[in-house]
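Q: Please design a sequence for this.
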């Protein structure tokens, strides 16, 4: 398939293929999963963020991506994978910098972050020092395109406004509002993200006690799940994400969540060793932690976190890598059964598929 293109007529076929592959991997390991509930993506304009190199040829400059197989550059004038707002901005931004020497000169890359409510943050990355002259030409650009704009160069970051956009997701009858900050992780497919949030919220119906969440990011899952539990303890390794998660909880009037900076491995190791420092810092004696929520990176759960998981009655596990999810569940299968199983097509027309399972103690 061509880089950056979509094939709506093939969407169902590719979805069925990915689904069958994952089910086959599960069966090959001798594991028992219920039939999955499948959540589809829009077949086009589903991705809320994108980045492009800028290629300069004589009097022209244009966006490119690189073919992952051939490594050849591919000119990108429209990007149907990306949101409608990204496509609109690609054209208008390019027209603007083509006509403006100061903004075009040594422009290396452009990054777009958009929301389902049409907010947009654009980062323009340069191979030159950005000075007052750049700022003078960039401000009218931000105003004309109605965007938040950041200029970056080596050891340089110029904010012309905020470095975040605000996204809104409707979960279980309520709107949740999130600051999504430049250069921090956010779910790329907003439509599927809403489905994931509602699915996780529903699974929490079966769960008890207080919630421990590892890899909480900016509070994407934390905020709606907080409505299902008396108290939530959430950890994340990124200092910036913890800051944003606290801000997101505050603006959504959620006050039963405590966020702490710690990696999953660090937290789990300290918990298993019963380190007094951890218990005091996080007031662990104040919690009745019976439910665990994890959304780990592609590597899956580390050995310490797997061991920690055995102490819970319920685990809601979101995975961006079916293979490591299967490996982790095989490890836990003597303690837990898979009660529900879901597939989320975050990345249409690729081999990637997001999974969700509810594990219940035997």
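A: Design:
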């Amino acid at each position: 398939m061509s880089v950056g293109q979509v094939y709506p007529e093939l969407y169902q076929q590719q979805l069925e293929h990915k689904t069958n592959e994952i089910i086959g991997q599960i069966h090959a390991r001798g594991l028992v999963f219920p039939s999955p509930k499948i959540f589809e993506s829009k077949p086009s304009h589903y991705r809320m963020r994108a980045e492009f190199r800028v290629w300069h040829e004589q009097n022209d400059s244009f966006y490119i991506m690189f073919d992952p197989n051939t490594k050849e550059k591919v000119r990108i004038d429209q990007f149907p994978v990306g949101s409608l707002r990204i496509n609109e901005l690609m054209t208008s931004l390019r027209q603007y910098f083509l006509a403006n020497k100061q903004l075009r000169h040594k422009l290396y890359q452009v990054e777009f972050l958009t929301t389902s409510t049409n907010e947009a943050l654009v980062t323009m990355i340069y191979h030159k020092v950005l000075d007052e002259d750049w700022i003078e030409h960039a401000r009218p650009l931000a105003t004309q395109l109605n965007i938040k704009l950041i200029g970056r160069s080596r050891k340089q970051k110029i904010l012309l406004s905020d470095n975040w956009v605000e996204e809104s997701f409707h979960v279980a009858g309520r709107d949740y509002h999130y600051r999504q900050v430049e250069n921090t992780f956010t779910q790329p497919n907003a439509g599927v993200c809403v489905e994931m949030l509602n699915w996780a919220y529903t699974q929490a119906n079966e769960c008890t006690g207080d919630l421990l969440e590892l890899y909480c990011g900016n509070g994407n899952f934390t905020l709606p799940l907080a409505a299902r539990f008396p108290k939530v303890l959430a950890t994340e390794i990124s200092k910036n994400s913890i800051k944003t998660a606290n801000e997101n909880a505050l603006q959504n009037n959620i006050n039963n969540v405590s966020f702490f900076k710690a990696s999953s491995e660090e937290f789990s190791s300290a918990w298993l060793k019963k380190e007094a420092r951890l218990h005091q810092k996080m007031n662990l004696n104040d919690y009745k932690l019976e439910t665990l929520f994890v959304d780990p990176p592609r590597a899956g759960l580390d050995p310490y976190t797997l061991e920690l998981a055995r102490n819970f009655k319920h685990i809601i596990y979101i995975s961006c890598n079916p293979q490591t999810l299967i490996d982790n569940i095989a490890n836990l299968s003597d303690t837990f059964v898979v009660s529900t199983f879901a597939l989320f097509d975050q990345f249409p027309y690729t081999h990637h598929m997001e999974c969700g399972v509810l594990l219940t103690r035997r």
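Q: Thanks. Anything notable?
A: The mean pLDDT is 96. The chain has two domains: 8-43+184-361, 49-164.
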